[in-house]
Structure formats: structure tokens, C-alpha cells
Amino acid sequence: MIKNIPYWSSNVERLRYKSIPVKSDCDAVIIGAGYTGLSTAIKLAKAGKFVQVFDVAQVGSGASSLNAGILSGNLRFSLKSLIESKGMKAGTEYYIEGINARKELQEFIKQECIECDLKYNGHFTGAMTIKDFDQMKYLADFERKILSNDIQILNRYDQHKVIQSEIYHGGTLRNDIGNINPVKFLDGLLRVAISYGAVIHENTAIHNIIDHRNVNTAAGHVKCDKIVVATNAYDKTNNKWFRKIIIPITSRIIATEPISPEIMVKLMPRMGSFGEGKYMGKYYRPSPDGKRILLGGRDVLVGKNPYGAAKSLSNSLVKIFPELSNVKVEYHWAGKVGFTRKQMPSIFEKDGILYACGYCGSGTVWAPWIGTKVAQKVLKKHTQKTIFYSEPPQKIPLFNGRPWFLPFVIIWYSTLDWIKGR
Length: 422
Ligand SMILES: Cc1cc2nc3c(=O)[nH]c(=O)nc-3n(C[C@H](O)[C@H](O)[C@H](O)COP(=O)(O)OP(=O)(O)OC[C@H]3O[C@@H](n4cnc5c(N)ncnc54)[C@H](O)[C@@H]3O)c2cc1C
Prior knowledge:
Low-confidence stretches: none
Helix content: 25-40%
Distance between the termini: 32 Å
Structural class: alpha/beta
Number of strands: 16
Shape: globular
Bound molecules: flavin-adenine dinucleotide
CATH class of the domain at 16-67 and 183-247 and 341-400: Alpha Beta
Number of helices: 9
């Protein structure tokens, strides 16, 4: 029987902390206690600000406790296309921030002694066709030339060093992309935030953002100097405007039953993580204890039946590793990732309120980075600029917070994959 709960919830003992009553006055109110909100809180509290973080539910009950824990820090666009559209300086800057964000996260985890099963076993992205492989190789060479990145190109035979699957035509291997237990990382952030003096109020919704200095919470009115909205794809405030610019897209994951260590190492010799070079590609990795495989993907058209969704992901797993055809799925869960129209992580200010969102499914690295940058904005540290600070994203025409058009988008991208023989 499949359990419709996250695998993480069954094997991580969550951090307990003492709750403190809501104070009616503070330096900053942060709405949302996921990776973004907690990272902002850490930076502000460390700088001596009195910060209160509110979450409508348990800390991290949005995407931050549901993700696969792959520390990608990737962007939706290649370095080449960014340079073509934004120019050499700006185009390169986006990627340099990605490199710095990964490094900073690794240092932060070490410095703050966060035990979150961090491992760097390499991330392989498989090419679905020979043409895709040639394109991947070309883009990787381009990136290496400009940024001296450590990207290895593995042909169809060499890929067996990292994956025992025949569905890929080679791919790229990156050693700077690690993986974590996402909930242990979340609780690590929570512990650090509290240790610097941030006050966390879970199960305390912000019902109403009155203006840039006042909010109504489930525990009364709070006045502050700055409000940061870190609700991303889970926004439940009264802010209708925000829900017109952020598209929540469902991502689902399955976790298998335990698999023998011999098979695990045979299928994934380096026990790294994996992605696929196609629009509707899957991502997967071994569980931190190396006993199961976790595989996820953006929502497929399976209606509302969770077993149908789990079955579809399980079929994808068997396509990659046919010898797992008898392996059962034990867990299945889903969460929402936030996209904006420009499909880039975004920091912006509107009516005096700061927002951080839109990591397009790659938030484990981007959310802590962007969360810290938001705090620097509050502290007015202009020396630590970010290329991701911009004007508020544009509204999406005919979008009112309910992504009615997603089935059409999924069909469109699935068709493109099919046309390209993926
Ligand atoms: C299934 C899945 C798999 C993923 N896998 C990966 C991966 O492998 N690698 C990767 O890089 N990224 C992955 N992601 C994306 C990543 O998890 C997110 O980008 C990241 O966690 C976003 O963090 P956040 O803090 O911005 O938002 P969230 O963690 O979603 O936090 C927003 C919070 O705001 C709170 N909130 C909303 N409204 C209110 C209100 N009115 N008052 C108070 N609180 C409120 C919510 O309760 C929520 O806790 C995945 C996401 C999902 C769903």
C-alpha cells in the first residue's frame, strides 16, 4: 500500500522549540518560514534586528519540507542564451551568482554545523537523443570556456561510471551539485535562526498586509519597519496582486521500498543525483541512507488520483532502470514550486514591501541565497548587490491565481519532447 505522505516525514524527528507570544512591534516581519524566510531571518537577526517570522502552518510546510534535496542552483536558461539576450556582463553574472550561491551554502552548512546528510557525489543530466547530446556538449564547452566550470561530458559508454541505464545518449556530470536531507536542512536553518534571536511563530497566519509597516496576524496586529513576503508558491495572504504573478506548479515524488545495496550501487555507482535533458524530465537520487530511490517530476496529466500519479512516476523509474520492475513504491507526495513569467529567481519591492520568490523548482540553493540578499536589501547593504533584484514581475494575462492553463502547457511541452524524439 502506498503511503501518501512525504518520505522525509517518516524518518526525521522535527526540531522542537519553545514558542513565544507575538510582539506587537518589531524591526521586521517575515511572512513564510521556508528556506527563504528563515535565511532572511538569520541574516537580519545576526545583524541585531528584532525579527518575527510567521507561518500559517508548521515551519517549512511548503516546498521546503517536500523537495528532493538536490542542491542544483540551476537556471532555466543556458549561459549562452543569457549572454545572447542580456549581454556578456549581465548574462555571465547570473551564472556567477549560481556558483557563489552553491559555495556559500556549502560553507554555511559547515560553519553552522548543520547535520543534513550533505554529500557531493555528482549530478548527471542525461541526453535523450544524440542531437541533444551534441547540443549539451556544445553548451557545456561554452560554459567551461567562459567560467572555467567543472562540467564533465560523458559519452554513452562513459556514463556507465555514474548510471547503469541505457536510455541516455551520454550527458553532463557536475561535481559541485550535492544533495541533502531537505527536512534536516530546514530544521538546521530553524535552529540557527532561533540561536541568533529570531522569533518564529508557526501556525500563525498573516491574514492581512495592511500597508508596508502593518500586518494583521492570527495573534493580533503587528507594526514593523519592514515586511518581507517569502510565501512563494504557497501564498495565503490577502495579497491578490502577488498571486497574479506567481504560478504554482505541482511537482511530485515517489520513494521506493528499500532496494538491496548491491543493486543500488550497480545502478548508481557513485550514488549521485540525476536529471534529464528534456522539458518534462524527471529528477532522481538515492535516499540519504542509500537504501531507496526517490524520483520526481512536474505534474503529469493523471487527474486527481494520487495512485495514478505514483504509477506514472513508477513507470518512468522502470524505463530508466528496467530491472526495478518488481520494486514497489512506498511513498508518494506532491508540493508546489513557484514560477514567474520571466522564469528566474526574483527579488523585488512593491509599495515598500520586499518579495522573494520564483526559483522554478531549483530553490534549495536559490532560496537561501535570495533570502540572504533580501536581508541585505533591508539592511541597505548596497555593496552586496544581486543581478536578481528587479522590477516586480509582470502579471500573467488571464491568470487569477488559478493555473487553469497548465494542462495545455504540459501537453505542449510533452508534445515538443515527443517531436524531438525524447
Ligand atoms: C516536490 C518538490 C521537489 C523539489 N525538489 C527540489 C530539488 O531537488 N532541488 C531544488 O533545488 N529545489 C527543489 N524544489 C523546490 C524547493 O523546494 C523550493 O524552491 C523552496 O523550498 C522554496 O522555499 P521558500 O521558502 O521560498 O518557499 P516555501 O518553502 O514554499 O515556504 C513558503 C511558506 O509560506 C507560508 N505561508 C503562505 N502564506 C502564509 C501566510 N498568509 N502567513 C504565514 N505564512 C504563510 C507557507 O505555509 C510556507 O511554509 C522542489 C519542490 C517540490 C515541491
